[in-house]
Amino acid sequence: MEEKTITLKGFEISARDIPANWPVCFLEGCPHSGDCMRHAVMPLLEERVTRGHSIYPAALRAEGGCPHRVPIRVVRMAWGIKPLFANVLQRDAAPLRAQVQAYLGSHSTYYRYNDGTNLLGPKRQQGILDIFASYGYTEGLAFGHYVEKLCF
């Protein structure tokens, strides 16, 4: 059986692209259903998944609208941290690397973001650039690779 896919903003996605334990919206009549990632991916799951995390009808009654809405948008993800160190002074390299590793959670996680196993979203990219800025490095900083992806 061929895997079902949908196209959103020019990107083809399947059920395996949906993050694990990511709540999906099955609510009919939601005013945000046309521009909500949680609702847009519902067709990928409705035929084969029998249980999981979902958005409940009370979300439609929340003040200010559904608090779980995730607009369908494309973001610029990055990987490859090593190029950021190209112009770093030797005395700053080790403490800077240690601080970035701590920010990302661990030594091994740092390398997953460096080799592309994990991708850095815009907030994490900025967090890393802020660490470099705290050492006085602000010019010419760029991650090794960038890729456009749908934001879950």
What attributes does this structure have?
single chain, 152 residues, alpha+beta, two-stranded parallel ribbon, 5 helices, 30% helix, elongated
Could you describe the 3D structure shown?
A two-stranded antiparallel ribbon has the order 1-2. It starts with a strand and ends with a strand. The longest helix is centred in the middle third of the chain and has 15 residues, at 90-104. The protein has 152 residues and is an alpha+beta fold. The protein has 5 helices and 6 strands, in the order βββααββαααβ.
Question: How confident overall, as mean pLDDT?
Answer: 93
Structural class: alpha+beta
Shape, please? elongated
For the record, give the distance between the C-alpha atoms at the N and C termini, rounded to a whole number: 26 Å
Proportion of beta-strand residues: 15-25%
Largest sheet: 2 strands, antiparallel
Oligomer: single chain
Uncertain segments are none
Order of helices and strands, N to C? EEEHHEEHHHE
Work out the helicity level.
25-40%
Main sheet: which strands, in order across? 1-2
In short:
The protein has 152 residues and is an alpha+beta fold.
Give the SSE layout.
Blueprint: E1 5-8, E2 11-14, E3 24-25, H1 37-40, H2 42-45, E4 54-55, E5 74-79, H3 90-104, H4 107-115, H5 122-134, E6 145-150
Parallel strand pairs: 3-4
Antiparallel strand pairs: 1-2, 5-6
